[in-house]
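pinned: reference chain
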Amino acid sequence: MRENHVSTQIFRTRSAARSWAAWIAAIAIPLMLIAPALWNGYPLLQVDTGGYLARWHEGYLVPSRSTAFGLYLHFGEDSAFWINLGIQALATLWILQLTLRVLGISQPLRLIAISLALALTTALPWLASTLFTDIFAGLSVLALFVLVAHGDRTSTPEKCLLFALTAFAAATHSATLGVLLGLCCIGWIARPFLRGRISVAGLTQGSLTLIAGAAMLLATNFALSGQLAWTPGGYGVAFGRMLQDGIVARYLRDHCPRQQLKLCPYRDQLPATADKFLWGKSVFDRLGRFQGLNDEMSFIVLRSLAEYPAWQAKAALMATAQQLVHVGTGEGTNGWLGHTYGIVERYLPAQLKPMRAAQQQRRQFDFTAINYVHVPVALASMLLAASLFGHGLWRRPLDDLTLLAGTISFALLGNAFICAVISGPHDRYGARMAWLATTVVLIAASRRFTAEDARPATAHGRRDRKSMTPAL
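pinned: its structure tokens
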């Protein structure tokens, strides 16, 4: 009897400690995630934030600016966008907690430790603190993983929220949609070889999120502009990448004597980079920007693909390799954000005073010291995540961690390929996904250096003894 009483007391003590830890996690982790914005005194802005903010107010489509994300930002205008940061922080907390839970790591203290490590060593808090689409790119990969691979360990409300988050993320950026589409395709191809690890129902639900995301984007485009059309600008961005690689100059040199193209008189004046051509003061402005040059740019892009396939393939592979190592934090937030400032001044004058008082607007951010930590951590994490996946494939049978490491590895590779080939290598594209690799490594470390069995939980948090997953 005495032993039973002692066991009951120990159980109650542990339950109370976990309850307190859960409350601490629910408060501390969101604050950690938006710490940069709290220090800044205002949500962080990005060079392209203004384009999304303006969608509600201008009512027409512009290249590469999702109206779905524009509506999301409009929802938070009256709160000075703090409600948006609250949503981003809570969504991140929930996705991290859910991922750990389905992998059998449901202890709040581990969630706190992993979240703290991510906040100190990755771009995650900077992504969560910024009014931009990038935070949803990584979250959607984890959401899709849980929905597809572990739907049986989640409740119906959780499935609905995962579905909605993934669909919304797909609607915010075409590159995110492309990465999620690639993961679903890999899932369908690999399913026959995974011996039931991925169900048809899970893959179907994951695939339907992409259809829902595309429908969401089309619906918001129609609601705001009256046009049932996809967000424009894809050819223009691809044109910029080909210009940067020298392919456009070669095409103009080969064809201008025979084809009457608007760019022919300026073929010797083209800037060296896509950013200078599309967003700086260049001939692009004189020829009408996207409206005046879109047809010609799409023509050159398609013809260049047909005429220089080997060059295009080599450029794509080199750009992808370069993108994989471009993972620095801060690109787009550490310079003059003139267009975004102008949009805020024109449409949100009440936000001018707090925006101008923020640290970001009073001093130029320098991420050099931060990237001394973030860059090597990101690169090492990517290598380790790929190694975990390779080791799991070699060892067999596949466990949950191997499946997660494979998902993240393919997401990183797909993100690098899509972003580099279409737009060219940028640190922002790498940083928005690299924290996922660090998450995989931290989960592996947590399971490796613990004496407790890592057993997956059911939808209601109970241990699932039938599907025990051995600790690594």
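why pinned: The longest helix spans residues 2-33. DSSP finds 23 helices and no strands in the chain.
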